[in-house]
Structures are given as C-alpha cells and as structure tokens.
Design goal:
The structure holds 2 protein chains of 2 kinds.
Chain A: E1 9-13, H1 18-34, E2 38-43, E3 51-52, E4 55-58, H2 61-67, E5 72-75, H3 79-92, E6 96-99, H4 106-118, E7 122-124, E8 130-133, E9 137-140, E10 149-156, H5 160-171, E11 176-181, H6 192-200, E12 207-213, H7 218-225, E13 230-235, H8 259-268, E14 273-274, H9 280-284
Parallel strand pairs in A: 1-2, 1-5, 2-4, 5-6, 6-7, 10-11, 10-12, 12-13, 13-14
Antiparallel strand pairs in A: 3-4, 8-9, 8-11
Chain B: H1 5-14, E1 22-25, E2 41-46, E3 59-63, H2 67-75, E4 78-79, E5 82-83, E6 87-91, E7 97-106, E8 111-117, H3 124-130, E9 136-140, H4 149-156, H5 163-176, E10 179-190, E11 193-196, E12 199-203, H6 221-229, E13 232-235, E14 240-244, H7 247-259, E15 264-269, H8 276-287, E16 294-300, H9 306-316, E17 321-327, H10 331-338, E18 344-346, H11 349-360
Parallel strand pairs in B: 14-15, 14-16, 16-17, 17-18
Antiparallel strand pairs in B: 1-6, 2-3, 2-6, 4-5, 7-8, 7-10, 8-9, 10-11, 10-12, 13-15
Classes of the chains: A alpha/beta, B alpha+beta.
Chain lengths: 289, 361
C-alpha cells in the first residue's frame, strides 16, 4: 500500500454537496469494514455546524484540523473553487490532497500545484477517481466491491477504465496493493513517474499495471525510471486525431502522444502492452514471483 | 478553443504587443471605404481554422488599387475544404527578419514553457525537428506574475531590446486569458520595429465561461446539442452508437469495436456523475445519428450511479436495440430497472462489444 494506510484521518472538502455527501457515506462504510479511521470532518465555507452522515462540517480547513486529526483531504468542491480549496488544504498542513473535481481551469490547477509543492503537500488529480488500497483505505469514489487485495499496483489516467481493469484483475484472481487514478487533465499533481517510484519501494507490490491514454508522454517518462515490472494498456488507438475525447489531456498532439507511437515506445523499453483490457492478466502472470 | 487570428491579435494588442495596421472584412465590398491609412502594399489573410493556410492559398498579397479584385478571388476560395467568410486585411510588412515566440503549458514540469527562436516563419516545425537546440526555452511557475529579467535575457540572447517586452506581454496575455497556447509566428523585425505578423491563441475549454467566450464554431446539429449538455461527442462513419462514462472507458470501448472489426457511428462520453436526465438525452442524441443500428451503453459506476443510468435508458425510449453493460455503484438497483424492458444486458465490456458488432453487421 502506498500514500496512506487505514489509520489516516480524512477530511472531505465540499462535504455538503450531493457528491461529497454521497461519498462521505461510502468512504466511511469502507473504513468501518476494514477497521479504519475514515472521514473525520467535512469542510464547506458557510456551512459550519452542520452534519453530513454523522460527520461534523466546518467553515475552513484550519478549523477542521484544530478539532480533528487528519493528514488527507478529498476534494469535491465545484471547479471554480477547486484551486483555492487545494491551496487551503496545503496551507493548513494536509499532506495529501485527492482532487476529484473535473473541469478545473488548467491555470488554477497549475497555480495550486505550485503552491502545494511549496507547502510540501502532494496532490493526486484533479479530474480523478482517487485511490483505493484494498483492505486499508479508500480515498475518493472508486467502487470498492470490484477490488481485492494482492500484489498488483495500478496507475491510471482514467476513472472508469480503471474499474474495468480492476474488475478483470479481480476476476483473474490478481488482487491489488493500491490502485491510483492520477487524473485525466493535461496537468496533474502526481504523475506516472511519482506513483511508480512509490510502487518501486513498496514491498507488497510485485508488478504494476499502467493504464494510459493518447496525449502527452508521461506514461513513457514514468516507465523509463520505474524499478518494478510493468504491463501497460493504452486507450485511444482508434481515436481520430485532433478530436477531444473528453479529457483535455487526450488531445492527440502532433506525432507525440498518439496511441500507436506511445505503445511502440513502451514496447521498446520492454514493457508488454495489452491490446485490450482483458489481456492484462495473461501478460501479468509471468512477471509475478 | 482556438481563436481566429484577428481575435488573437486584438487580445495581444490589448497587452501592448504591436500588430500590423489592419481590419476585418466579411465581403470584398467592405474594402473600398476602409483603405485610407493603409500602406501601398497589403496582405489579405483568410480567417479559417486550418494549419498551413499560407501554403494552401489562404494568404494573398496585393497593391492598394488592385486589392478589391484580390479580395474577391480570396472570398471565392475554399481553404482545405473550408469556405472563406472572413478576411483580415493588413498592411504588408517590410520584413528584415522572422522570429518565433510562444508560451504554452508544459505537462511534465506543470509550469508554463516559454519558447523563443530567431528562426521563425513557416519552417518552425523543421527547426524544432532538426535543430531543437536553436529553440531557447524557459520554464516559469504560473504563481509568478511576471517573467524575471534574467529569463528574458537568457531567451533573447542580446537581441533587440524590443523583444523582451513582447515576451513579457505575451506571458501576461497567456495568464490573463487562460491560454493553453499563445504563439507569435512570425514575430517580424522591420525598420519600424517588431510586429506580431501572425498569432495563435488557444483558450482552455474549462475557462471559456469565465473568459466570456461563446463557442460557435463549425458543428453539426448533434455536436451543438452535445456541447449544450456538456457531453464529449464525436461523429464517425460506422453503425454502432457508443455511450460510455469517462474518456478512457469510452475510448477503450471504441478500440475494442475496432479489435472485433466493427465500426462506431459516433461516441459520447457522459462524464462523471450523470443523472437520469443526462443519460436520457445522451441516448436520444446518439440514436438520432443516421446509420446507428445498435447502441452500446458501457457504464461503470463510481460517481455515476447505475440506477440513474438505467432510468435514463428507459426514459429515452429509442427504436434501436440497446446493449447495456452496467457495473459499480448501485448496480443491482440499475439492473432491476432495466429487467424485462427488452434490453440486452451483459456483464463485461467484451461481451457488450462482441454482441454489438454481431448485431450491427
């Protein structure tokens, strides 16, 4: 398991919104099932004093941390306020912000990540499903019943495609150590490289599934430095060039970043690349000790 | 969203970057009474959203007295299939030298990347490919409001003192307008000073509303509707309609259709957390494209709830067969809603795609 264990206290920002409230409940259900701490507080400016599924809500992150022990925050605030909310968490002393929110203007993301870096705070996302370490902790919105614990690490730019792959792994009897959705935006906090470095140092993780998409070259950059066996799947081989595929990051930029050349570069590094998600377990098995 | 050249230039001019004197016309007849103040030589530039415009015949030079005829010629052309409806008329510049500068987003460092090279003009891509060392680069975190002087000195390498302010102002425009790319190519050196002879500005789609930009570009009716709902929607030529949630899963579904030798007619990503109303509109929209024989709905619940999806599918009431794959949050509730409604329910994405390809062929 990487990033956080079951003992980490979680604060949810944007706690009183529909999504925030719904997922506070699911995260706490998960925490109860594994004997974890779960969500200890929520933050929504102007809604201090309320409760959401039994969790007290505060007006600010500072106030929440004055009353509760927490190291992680999960963010559901609307896009226009998300950059500010990431910085508030970093300033208040949170170690890891998991930003679920999508459609954040990229400049806001870049400023927030620069600031969080100065404050020594890691950011996962934005536009991501969060992370889940089966049997330990769930930070975000991943549907827990698809997961099982085991030696496989998963890193993905996608949300739902990650669930697809996790379901395949679980069906094949390959449990997961931690599954990290790093987010689909062009600029994200933790990249493939950052997460792969953590997996490389994690005793539980024996191999990593790297799920990429058209756009950019962060998959290859990450695979280059990883000190752990990797299997990859890249979505978007049939993507028409120059068409937006829902993730700003999945714009095919010139030659660099299209699925085929990405796959070729990974294969050149010796990384097996699955032609479809259901092929991943077969490629993983020979890599396990 | 990419702005047109004249829109980009107006923005840059507003940030103190010199642009050639000129104006926009929407028909050749508008020329006559606007020529005063322009030099003897003018350039007419078609405002079309394609690259390589100059080489495709979209830029014409003319004398002041011959320019109406040249304008008529340009308005009669199509540039790479796009009819010319707007022409930017500018005074021709006395070019001594063509430079290049740009500010863009660097995914890797999560900062802005400033580029500058003395080898600007139409062959910039060749320079980038063959002589990458000739393009000078600087990275700057967006929490900095201004480009520090040392960075400007390092970029321009002692070149004319007018260049530094252009880069400084380009960075200001990039920041102020939520750009993902701000580019001047060429930045022309003339005896009278430097000018942004061409400019490209791409604004972050997630910032259009706060920038007050309304999108009205060449779109099909279905693309326009999709955009009004906030769906990502792309039209293709095949027979299978595809609906997914999340770009990755939707793309993977499309890839799998290709793997099984089927062809998608269109695909739509409903995004995260879609409720029954959004799903209903999505299903209806995909179904209206001519040639759609079957529809695959491949949805994995996380922030999206399967019961909402199911209600949306039922509510759409479309004539085509719908193959539904639902998994995740509230999966059982969703399946119960669809049960007995004539939907083809499958458990895996592979089964969904295989079934769709068979039924569509």
């Amino acid at each position: 398991m990487i990033y956080a264990d079951r003992n980490a206290g979680i604060i949810v920002t944007g706690a009183t919104g529909k999504q925030g409230a719904f997922h506070i409940n699911l995260m706490n259900e998960y925490a109860r099932s594994v004997g974890g701490t779960g969500v200890v507080a929520g933050v929504t400016p102007g809604k201090g004093g309320q409760e959401v599924h039994g969790v007290p809500v505060y007006n600010s992150m500072k106030e929440a941390l004055a009353n509760h022990d927490a190291s992680v925050s999960v963010l559901f605030v609307p896009a226009s306020a998300a950059g500010d909310s990431i910085m508030e968490a970093a300033a208040a002393g949170i170690d890891l912000v998991v930003a679920i929110t999508e459609f954040i203007p990229v400049h806001d993301t870049m400023k927030a990540i620069s600031y969080a870096r100065l404050e020594g705070c890691d950011v996962i996302g934005p536009n991501c499903p969060g992370l889940l370490s089966p049997g330990e902790i769930k930070l975000g919105i991943m549907p827990a019943h698809l997961f099982s614990r085991g030696p496989i690490g998963v890193i993905s730019r996608s949300g739902t495609l990650t669930y697809e792959v996790v379901a395949e792994l679980t069906r094949a009897g390959l449990g997961q150590s931690t599954v990290v959705g790093i987010g689909g935006d062009p600029v994200i906090g933790q990249t493939f490289e950052d997460v792969l470095l953590r997996f490389s140092c994690d005793e539980e993780t024996q191999a990593v599934v790297l799920i990429g998409e058209v756009g950019g070259n962060l998959e290859e950059e990450g695979a280059k430095i990883a000190d752990i066996p990797i299997v990859s799947y890249i979505a978007g081989i049939s993507a028409p060039p120059e068409k937006r595929m829902g993730h700003a990051g999945a714009i095919v930029e010139g030659g660099e970043g299209d699925a085929r050349s990405k796959i070729e570069r990974l294969q050149k590094m010796g990384v097996p690349v699955a032609s479809r998600p259901s092929e991943i377990p077969r490629l993983l098995r020979p890599l396990l000790g | 969203m990419k702005l047109r050249e004249y829109e980009a230039k107006q923005i840059l001019a507003g940030h103190g970057i010199p642009i050639p004197a000129g104006f926009l016309i929407r028909s050749p007849d508008e020329l006559a009474d606007r020529m005063t103040g322009l030099s003897e030589k003018v350039v007419l530039k078609a405002q079309v959203d394609v690259g390589g415009r100059g080489k495709a015949g979209g830029v014409l030079f003319a004398d002041k007295n011959s320019c109406t005829g040249v304008a008529r010629e340009l308005f009669s052309r199509s540039i790479k299939g796009i009819p010319v409806t707007e022409v930017l008329v500018e005074q021709a510049l006395d070019i001594e030298r063509e430079l290049y500068t740009a500010v863009l987003i660097d995914r890797s460092s999560k900062e802005a990347l400033i580029l500058f090279t003395t080898e600007g003009g139409v062959d910039i891509e060749e320079t980038a490919r063959n002589h990458p060392e000739r393009i000078r680069k600087a990275r700057i975190p967006l929490i900095m409001e201004r480009v520090p002087s040392f960075m400007l000195r390092d970029l321009v390498q002692g070149l004319g003192k007018e260049i530094g302010p252009v880069i400084q102002n380009l960075y200001s425009a990039f920041l102020r307008h939520d750009a993902v790319l701000a580019e001047i190519n060429p930045l022309v050196v003339t005896p009278a000073g430097v000018y942004a002879a061409d400019a490209k500005l791409i604004i972050d789609d997630n910032a259009l509303s706060r920038q007050g930009i309304v999108v009205n570009r060449d779109q099909t009716e279905r693309e326009r509707i999709a955009q009004s709902h906030g769906f990502s929607y792309v039209e293709l030529d095949g027979t299978i309609g595809v609906i997914g949630n999340g770009a990755g899963l939707t793309m993977a579904t499309l890839d799998l259709i290709g793997h099984y030798h089927g062809s998608a007619a269109n695909f739509l990503d409903v995004g995260g957390g879609a409720d029954k109303d959004r799903v209903r509109e999505a299903v209806r929209l995909v179904a209206t494209k001519p040639g759609v024989r079957v529809i695959v709905v491949n949805l994995l619940g996380g922030i999206t709830r399967c019961d909402e999806v199911a209600s949306g599918i039922v509510g759409a009431g479309i004539p085509q067969k719908v193959i539904v794959r639902l998994a995740g949050t509230n999966e059982q509730e969703g399946k119960a809603i669809l049960d007995g409604g004539g939907y083809i329910m499958v458990d895996t994405m592979e089964d969904a795609v295989r079934t769709a390809v068979e039924m569509a062929s």
